[in-house]
Protein 1
Amino acid sequence: MLKDVTPNTAEIARTDAGLASTLRVSVMRLARRLRNERDAEDDLTPNQLAVLGTLARCGALTIGELAGAEKVQPPSMTRIVNCLVDKGLLQRRPHPGDKRVVVVSLTDEARAVVLESRRRKEAWLNKQLSELSLAERRILRDAAPLLERLSQA
Amino acid sequence: MLKDVTPNTAEIARTDAGLASTLRVSVMRLARRLRNERDAEDDLTPNQLAVLGTLARCGALTIGELAGAEKVQPPSMTRIVNCLVDKGLLQRRPHPGDKRVVVVSLTDEARAVVLESRRRKEAWLNKQLSELSLAERRILRDAAPLLERLSQA
DNA sequence: TATTGTTATACTCTATAACTATA
DNA sequence: TATAGTTATAGAGTATAACAATA
């Protein structure tokens, strides 16, 4: 009887002993460290911040889509959106073709806030990266697209 | 006049054009994806979950230290801790030497919850990793300790 | 007198239920 | 009749202020 040489999950887990574990820990820690690197957006609640981030990633979304993405109920999302509209960070627009639906998108001011937040995190990260060797930065340059691919699985 | 060859931050940012940006995005996305991979701990609030995670990483802490770590006020942490004690996930003990202080630590049951949460995330991650090539996994194995080092800067 | 933590109270945020408008 | 969103109300969760115990 021939042996099955197709790599299965258990076998890979063994040969890559601990890779998932160390990768999970390091990714979660770095993400937490980056998340703490905030400033201007400090007066926003976590959910408000998450809405800005989601809209920055996904573009304009409806109230229902936003509620689903942030895992809150529609009435809560109505409130969150209203609050951000009052702050001048979101704009509501009617859906072309379905008058029940409300489309929400970032204002220019919100885009500036998001960009500033990114700039701040990346400035911190650049400073840390500058203390690595060229070879080490090369490894991270190779790793980044792989992490991206994993996140989209 | 001799040119200064010491690499400065601006120069490195240019040569590593976009590294901080792509790395930040990929790390944050993978962390978000991993965070969504939960199940048993679904009946806990985000702050309750964070307290379990912090205690799992740092060991026993006082109410004040926990409040500082989670960025909530002491009365709120008292409430969160009481709730977790009622659920059998935390135990309170007097501080040896300072009777004002309360030391909080995980119960065996809480440790089991945390381990199960990690197991679940790592099972998902292992599955995704199994679809990468050996060379790609090698890159991630090299990258993990670098990410860890960045997070501790 | 200063510090750690708790209790009392008010405020904010979220969820459920009922309602309006549109499909 | 079903769906998207809003309004009204009740329920968690957090913060501020006042307090108790210890240093």
Note: The CA atoms of residues 1 and 137 of chain A lie 47 Å apart.
Protein 2
Amino acid sequence: MPELPEVETIVQNLSSKIRGAEVSSFRLFFPGLIRNKKKKILEKLRGRKIINIRRRGKLILIDFDNDLTLLVHLKMTGQFVFYPSHESVDKHTHFILSFKGQKQEVRFRDVRKFGFIQCLLTSEALKLINLGPEPLEISFSSFQNLFKGRQACLKSLILNQNFIAGIGNIYANEILFEAKLHPINSVSLLKEEELKRLWKAMRLVLKRALKHRGSSIRDFKDAEGRVGSFQNFHQVYGKESLPCPHCGARIERLRIGGRSSFFCPQCQREKSKILIEP
DNA sequence: ATTCGGACCTGAAAGC
DNA sequence: TGCTTTCAGGTCCGAA
């Protein structure tokens, strides 16, 4: 479900509600959710205060005042939502954190159970995962450097979290449309001017999506239970056979690296590796 | 060294 | 009304 804009939206919700809150109790319904071998480590969170909630790529990090951090990945259908404590718990709720003096508790729900939570030392939390730079923080020249010596196909590369962190399938499609670049192009063929378009498109699309509090296609809800609205502004994602909003050509769908890729064959031209001289 | 399919899960929607 | 197939905001792993 969640890519950078959705995860950031949830992190903002959580920050405003539970930064500084003290954990009174937790409940774990699906032990497989916790990646640590010893689930008992969670006991160390009881009575501790949350000092910070951060995002890195698509990961949520909840830092506690005893140098422990909960690393959370929502994967496809994970949700963090506040519920009144008295409300009944449904079968997709796998973990609940309750706070001292608060009538609301935060519940982790995940229909497909792909998501995970891991409890780590704060200083170690990001060391396990090799994440690329943040797309909204990287300068153009650093961005350009990332591509040196690479020759993968463009769409696969920007979906690769080691390359750049936080972009998933929806935003990869939308960014490439905005940049007018064909998803299957090899990055080795891109000129500086095209990389600049890509960098600008990446920033523009992600910032717009943040402003609209993410895209809700089927499962995404923020921590207040609200849906995002950026799905209303998608140009190509999920729009196979519909007219391109720019030129009217029919949007096509292609499978790249096992993921659906939507693009306008007119606006996003494929580059041929073979130069045909007349 | 990359790329591919399958695996991990469940449920909604489409196809027959 | 079924029953079956396909698809889904992600990532990991092992085999070609």
Note: Residues 1-3, 6, 58, 73-77, 112, 114-115, 159, 161, 168-171, 214-220, 237, 259-260 of chain A lie near DNA strand C (CB under 10 Å from a C1').
